[in-house]
Structures are given as C-alpha cells and as structure tokens.
Amino acid sequence: MDSDIKRPNILPTSENPYSARFDRAAVLRKRLPSGIRESCFDRATLITEGYKRFAADPIILRRAKALAHVLDHLPIRIFEEELIVGDQSVSHQAGHNYPEFGHWFRVGSRPQRVPRSDRRKRLNLALLPNATANASSVLPGHSQHQIAHLNDGFYNNANSWISNGEPSWVEIDLGEAMTVSAVALGSEHVPHYQDRAVTRFDILLSTDYHVDSSHPSWQKMHEYQGEPVHTTRTFSFKPVKARWVRIQIWESEGGNARVDEIEIYGDRMAEEGLDDAPDEPSKADALAEQLAEVAEFWQEHPRLRAVGSLFGHTVPGFQKLLDKGFEGIAAEAQAKLDQLDPTDAEQIATEPFWQAMVILCRAAGNFGRRHAEEARRMAAIEPNPRRKGELLRIADVCEQVPAHPARTFHEAVQSLWFGHMLIELEDPPNAHSIGRLDQLLFPFYQRDLEAGRLTKEAAYELLECFALKIWKSYDVQDTMLGGQKSDGTDGVNDISFLYLDVVESLDLHLQISARYHRGTDPAFWRRVAEVNARGRGLPQMFSDEVIIPALVRKGIPLEDARNYAVIGCIELTIPGRCDPRVVNHYTNLAKCLEYALNDGVCLLTGKQQGLRTGDPAGFCTYEELWEAYKAQVAHEVRSAVPHMHRAELEQRERFPMPLLSALTDDCIGKGLDITAGGARYNSTGVCGYGMANVGDSLAAIKKLVFEEGRLTLMEVVTGMRTNFEDNEPLRQLLLNGAPKYGNDSDEVDPIVAEVCRHFCEVLEPYRNPRGGRYHAHLFSFVIAVHGGAQTGASADGRKAGEPVANSLAPQQGRDRNGITAFLKSVSKVDQTLAAAGTSLIFDLHPSGISGVEGVEKLDTLLRTYLELGGGHVECNIVDADLLRQAQREPEKYAHLSVRVAGYSAYFVTLDKAMQDHIIEKTKNVL
Question: Which pTM does this prediction carry?
C-alpha cells in the first residue's frame, strides 16, 4: 500500500482537476476556531413553520413534511474554497437550535437592548459591524452560553458567555484600532441567573495581538478585585488606542465566570438622537420576536417535543444511499404504496409511513439540486478561473447526489456528507457516526483511479475536505477503518491509509477507529501505532476477534457481524441495519456492593435505595456476600428496565425518525419507523461500571475476613460507614493488604471477570419493546467521576465521593506491576459477553514510545492485547507533571490533548474532577 501521500502542491491537470498550488486545507481550517460558535436559528424557525402548517397530519407525516419544509427552504451555503459543500448554519461551528428537543428560549421575557451609546454620546464600539467576540474557553453543551453572546446587543435574553473554569479570558476585536476609555460588563441581568459573577479580573488593551495575556503587547488599564460584579458596571481609564479589548478573569464565584455583555466606549460619537428613536425595529428585534413565537409554540405543544431513547448515536445506512440515492429509496417506498391493498387494515395503517418516506426522500434529493443551482450561480460571477471550474464541477456533483446513486469518488464523498448532514437536520449532533469509510469509498476510488479520472493526491484532498466538514468542536463522530470484509478477508485498502494520513496531518480531534484481526495488513497496523505515538490518542482500536463473536452470540449473522462499526465512543452497531439504543442506562456496580454491605441503605443519604438483602453481620461466608451483591445488581437492572421501556414507547408515539428510517434496512419493507422496531436488529445497550472496585473490594474481604481472619466483616462495614475517619490503618490494610486488579493477580482478576460476566448475564432475560435483546456495555463514559461522587466509601480502601474506576481499567494508581501485567489482568475478562462494547484506556509516559523502537513496542503491545482477548483499547500518552502544570497555567497548554472516555478532549477544557482523575492514573513506561 502507498501510505506516503501528503498534501498536494501541484498544478491542476485533466487527470487531477481538483488540485492547486495552494494548501486548501489551511484555508478551510481557518473556519474551525476551537470553542467559538455562533447561534443559527434557520432550522428552528423552519421546523416550527412546518409543524404548524401540517398540524392535521398523522405524526409520522407531520414530522416528515416539517423536515421536508426545512430542506426546501433552508438557506444554501457554499463557503470559500470548499469542494465538499453544504451546511445548515451560518458557519460550520455555529450552534444549531432544535426547539422540539427542549427549552432553548424563554417565553415572556422581552430582550433588553444594550445601549448603543453612553450618556456622553460615545458609541458602543462592541456593537460595530466589524466587532467580533472571542474567548479562551466556553462551557460545553449549552448553545445559550456561547461566545457570540458577548456582543449580541441584548441583555435579559437568557443568553450569555460562561467559561469552562478559571483563569479564562474574553475579548472583543474592534476590527481596527480605535480610542478606548471605558469598558462595561456584568453577569446575567435576569435575577434568577445572577450567578458565577467575576470577582477578580484585569482589563487589557492591545494593538498587536498575542494570545497570551501576559505578553508585553497587552497594556493593563484596570485591575479589579472585590465583590462579585453582577449588574453591569463601567470601568473608566485614560484613553488608549487599541484594537483588542480583553477581560482577563482570574476568579469568579461558582468556579465558572459568566459575562452577559461587553460594552466598549471611546472616541467615536453617536449620531444625534440615536437612543431617542427606538420605534424602528432592528434586525435583532425582529429575530427576537420571531424566536419568541417559536418558543411559545413548543411550550404550548409539549406532546410534540422529543422524548425517548433514540437520539444521536447512530450509523445510518450510507451504503444504501450511495447505491440507490434518495430517489431510489423513494421509489422503494412508492412501490409499497402502489401495491397497497386498501381492504387490508394493517396495510392502511402503514400508508402514512410510506408516504412520509416518499415525501422526505424526494425533498432530500432536491436539497442536493438546490446546491447545484447555487454553485452555478456562484460560478457565473466567479472571476478566478480555477475556482469557477471547481464550482461547475460541484454543481455537476450535486445535480447527481444525493438524489441518485454516486458514480464517482467525488460524488460518493459528497453524498456521504449530505447524508450525514441531513441526519443531523433531523436529530441534533450527538455522536452520529460515519461507519466504515474505507469500505464505503474504496470501490469508487478504485474505479476512478483505473479510469484516469482521479489521482491519489486528488482523493487525499477530497478526504481532507470531508474530514474538515465532519469535525465539530462539540461532538464525537466516529469513522472506522480496516477490519474484515463480510467474507472474512482483510478490508484494509488505500482509503484506510489515506484517511489515516489525513487525520494525522490535520491534527484535530477527529474521532477515528481502527479494526484489528489476525489477518490485518501489518503495514496498516504499524501506521496505526505511528499515529497513536503522536500523543492524541488516535486512532482507538477494536478487535474483530472479540467483537464479531460477541455479536454472533446475540443472534446477528456472521456476514453482518463482520460489518460492525462504532458509534461515537465505543458503542457497537451494524451500519444501516440496527437500532442499537446504546448507553441507555448506567449501572453502578460499586454502589450495588455498597447496598449489599448495608442491607440496601445508601451510605451517603441513609435512605433505603437498594434491595433488602440482609444485615451483613449475619453473613458467615464469602458466598453469602456474593449472593447479596448479585441480588442487588439484578434488582437495580430490573428497576431500570421499565423506565427504558416507557421511554421507547413514548418516543414511538410522539417522535418518529423518518429520515433515519429511510436509511435503515427493513423499515420500508415492514412499514415501520425505526422507533417502532422497523430495523433489522433492535438492541438496547446498558452500561456497567465500577467492576474494578467491586473486584478489589471482594478480594480484600475474601482474603482479610474470610480466609485470614485479620478483620471481621463488620469492622470493614463500620469503616465504610464512617468513611474511615479515625481509622486510617484499616483503610491502608484494605488498600495494601490484599491484591489489586491490574497487576496480573490470579486472586483478584477472576473476581473482576466474574463481576463482569454476572452483569452481562443479568440482562439476558429482558426484551425491549421492539422485540430486541439487551446488550451489555462494560463502559463508564465520564460517569466514573460523577458516579463515584454518589458512592460511599468502599471496601477496597476508596473514600466516599472519590471516582470509581474508568470502564475496564483498574482503579487509578493501583496497577503497579507495569503495562504488561495491567493488560493481562484486563484480558481475563470475557469481553465477548459485552456485545454493546467494552472500553479500556491505558496511560503511557511519552518517554516509552519515542523513536522507531518506541513505535515498534507500541505496535506489538497493542497487537498482543487484542489477540489476548481485548475488545477495545486506546492510549493516553501523557506526562502527569505536564498535566499538573496545565492545571496551573491553562492558557499555556490550550492544545494539550488527552483521551477521556472513548473520545479526545483538550485537557484544559475538562472540569477539575476529570483532570484529577486522568492525572492520578499510572503512567506506564514500555
């Protein structure tokens, strides 16, 4: 395989019409600022219009027609230098609004406009057209708390900027140097949200930008330390010429600073009477009124809001889209309508579903044609011959896809992006993943290469464009490479190498996974190790030797099981054939053992929350404790199942997913939406976590209580109840007097393996409302920190509130015999029992993988673990001392990357509890 393709720098040719003398990826990357997002309301207003217009239709038709209305009227956007086009928002990183998914705009509060000038008639420079906001970080997951709100011109609109921890900074770029003499700021004007106000900050000005606030280019104009700044206060100083105005925040109440609006006043004077003429509505006023109407509609119709368990976390049937196009899928549904027997009541009941498929698929096809029209319009006025030619080729591509089958590599990549974009117009970005990119695209690549229509350099550039499209600063969208084909042969091909090179070169948090089996191309696996050695924790790795048998055990045919892909972090599915409902519930196994040792009573609240399994004073044998623990786990799972069932049934009634159904096999054939069981395979994923803590605790009790008699069980329980206060020797004995998982111990590792086995088996009897089975995840995601905070002290010596172990890994810091012993312990767990996916993150010190020899060691280590029985593995290549330094000086380490829980994140954006959790893990050396 040729794996040394790098960014092209060649003239266009007839064989390679896409390449040019410039670095296209560098141009496109400028539109991907980390953490900076605007809000775009196009979809919100259009989906609401659609729901209003089609109120008389059955819910499946109403939703399909509303989504079609969005596709028919959404503004078409083609950005500078793109080859893969289409975006639902004003910018690629804008926050989207999905009003049917919950409250996002408060009804009844009229936004209060920020003054356009002060009493001295000095203009508010922050509201000038060229003024833009920026910040060092942003609280993730909340579209109403983004950077764009720092100068959006409104108070009292529930919008603001909130930091992701201090120190942080916010700034306004005025666009050009102006004289500045006053800055005003405050936290939220709405009384209910007067929190997180700043208490210590500096006001800095500069004409020569530097990201570091301590750089000499910044001039400190005011230093504040005192009471929280809730309502807006003005801070004046001598006039200074500046383009950038920055608030460097050092401290705030609540740990995260909130700034409602930044006002900047200087020498530019307002026109006479500016503030005396509020009657003429501004564009912002009109938008606010429109959004208030949107919010009012969804508040008045709560039964239309999204509920249930299928949101995000899918791998749609993109192969079907490439093969048939949306017109072909519409024809499939139309054929069902044409053959419908109107005397058959069951067929009449399915008629609205098939009608929905036809309407929505045709709108989706037309969406591509609308992009073709826009590309031709842009080409007609484009003065650059090179770009004009590109726009005309884009028009030809969009005329074909996604309406019709893809014929070329460019069409396939564009159709794939359109399909992904359309899924996210139906359902908010939440780990919608691409699937097996190399298997999807290789046939088109191979044909075009053989026909002379494409070069590897051109394919590389198109893949770069695609990667930059799917990257989002706030979402995890997996793309999988390698693995077996349906016939069992190795699926590694040129696209596997090319896309791996693209991800490495772009150096973004592009989620990517690699599949391994014993027949994997060694050159590909070596590249996987090389890219991992760079320290971003990518790609994560999965074993066909474990996952395929796990899926077959659940009744999935071998050919389909071989085509598995990953959703988001580590969750498994069969692309386009499965409704997996992953991470549907989290079972804290450490909490279950807590209940077993306290007769079902929570150690933190004193309330009866678990099953009554007996006073531990009466447990005379280890087996009695084990039976009590198993009863608690069974009770917890049984209690959760009805909630999962009700969520599914509620969604089936209120919130179908017609577009996802169109891209899922068997939905059209059955006449059933995916929420109602239309998919070929229908599973529900339930997570178990804390298994290492259970194993360590049981091993300590077994050895110190029942085998050696050094402690009584009630001494252990009393220590747990008091959180080991005034009894540190007991805690140390539990910590150090018994073996710990992660050290290749045959005393504790089999207990952890049995804990995992039992959890997986407890799920077996249950069936979900779609007739599918429950699949186990051995996966904690980020809940190891939060779940630990809700768990009392445990018999392994862990204190109350401390994090529990992350997924299949040992408790932080307890693996002391090196990485080989660590991995051998984990490999003793039968991971073929967990068909929803397992997770393992281990940490390596960077010194252990330096140079060619280090990469070879990493290659061998990863291969060996997966062959021993590991289902998944990802590496954190970090130095604990460096991470601690980043905690102290986050502004200097903004791009320091770590693996968290199946995804990568910038270390400084994580909350302190998660940062500490990562720091405390053992940093092994190879």
Answer: 0.80
Average pLDDT, the chain: 89
Task: List the structure tokens of 441.
Answer: 């695209």
The proportion of the chain whose per-residue pLDDT surpasses 90, expressed as a percent, equals 68
Burial 474-501 (b: 16+ CB within 10 A, else e): bbbbbbbbbbbeeeeebbbbbbbbbbbb
The dihedral region occupied by 307, where left means phi > 0, alpha psi between -120 and 50, and beta the remainder, is beta
Lowest-pLDDT range of 226-230, 303-307, 848-852 = 848-852
Q: How confident is the model at residue 310 (pLDDT cuts 50, 70, 90)?
A: confident
- Note if the bond before 167 is cis, omega within 30 degrees: yes
* Residue 344, phi-psi category: left (phi > 0), alpha (psi -120 to 50), beta (remainder): beta
Known active-site residue 571? yes
Q: What is the pLDDT of residue 115?
A: 81
Residues 6+ apart with CB under 8 A from 156: 109, 110, 111, 112, 189, 190
Alpha carbons 413 and 417: distance in angstroms, whole number: 6
Task: Name the residue among 693, 688, 687 with its Cα closest to residue 811.
Answer: 693
Phi, psi dihedral angles at 249 (to 5 degrees): -95, 125
What are residue 876's phi and psi, to 5 degrees? -105, 115
Active-site hit among 40, 465, 569, 687: 569
Helix (H, G, I), strand (E, B) or coil at 656: coil
Q: Which of 5-9, 201-205, 384-388 has the lowest mean pLDDT?
A: 5-9
- Residue 408 and residue 416: Cα distance in Å, rounded? 12
- Identify the burial level of 17 via C-beta atoms within 10 angstroms of its C-beta, where 0-12 means exposed, 13-18 middle and 19 or more buried: middle
DSSP H helices in 215-342? 283-300, 318-338
Q: How far apart are CA 408 and CA 236, in angstroms?
A: 62
Instruction: Look at residues 854, 812, 696, 833 and name the one whose alpha carbon lies nearest to residue 763.
Output: 833
DSSP 827: H
DSSP 302: G
Q: Give the C-alpha separation, 229 to 225, whole Å.
A: 10
Options 82, 504, 545, 571, the catalytic residue: 571
At 430 the pLDDT is 86
- Residue 314: alpha-carbon gap to chain centroid: 12
User: For residues 525 and 517, what is the distance between their CA atoms, to the nearest angstrom?
Assistant: 10
